[in-house]
Amino acid sequence: SQTIHQWPATLVQPVGSPLSLECTVEGTSNPNLYWYRQAAGRGLQLLFYSVGIGQISSEVPQNLSASRPQDRQFILSSKKLLLSDSGFYLCAWKSYGRSTFGSGTRLTVV
Amino acid sequence: KNEVEQSPQNLTAQEGEFITINCSYSVGISALHWLQQHPGGGIVSLFMLSSGKKKHGRLIATINIQEKHSSLHITASHPRDSAVYICAVSGAGSYQLTFGKGTKLSVIP
Prior knowledge:
The complex is a heterodimer of chains A (about 110) and B (about 110).
Chain A: E1 3-7, E2 10-13, E3 19-26, E4 32-38, E5 44-52, E6 55-58, E7 65-70, E8 73-78, E9 87-95, E10 98-101, E11 105-109
Parallel strand pairs in A: 2-11
Antiparallel strand pairs in A: 1-3, 3-8, 4-5, 4-9, 5-6, 7-8, 9-10, 9-11
Chain B: E1 4-7, E2 10-14, E3 19-25, E4 29-37, E5 43-49, E6 52-56, E7 59-64, E8 69-74, E9 83-91, E10 97-99, E11 103-108
Parallel strand pairs in B: 2-11
Antiparallel strand pairs in B: 1-3, 3-8, 4-5, 4-9, 6-7, 7-8, 9-10, 9-11
């Protein structure tokens, strides 16, 4: 079966600290992978997507970066978090027209 | 770019009521998703549909491709149904999903 693992579920980080959120998928190969963010009171917005290893496209310029070191691994990072980075982060993948979603990470920057 | 509108934004219902949440989109799609986001933030995928109707327990999702509209129905609502329900669409040949802003449902005992 096709599954997606995203962790942690919640995270509280101080301003200026680094961030690393990881997402891994199982049951598929060469999926398109996505990172979305939901700021308070807003809908989910696409941050990054990847169509293959090492291939990252950014939709919204910001304080975050993404990497895809392996086919089924997608990482969202920041060197120094800002208060405005607080929100809900969702990993998803799409393969053969089907999309699967991670359970999300709620990040609070304090 | 697809525009996804959900209505209502907020919905309060008494336990046992029949609930309908609507989703409209502007451009033809290959699939539509209904997601459930609980207060802790976790996302659960409820349905993915490209035509017709799907049912799972007390939840029913319908889509009308010609009218570019989908509805999520909850029969015999229960307080544990309280959550944010999000509609997302995937365009034909598109690499991304477009999400609605969500409908916050509160079911009161």
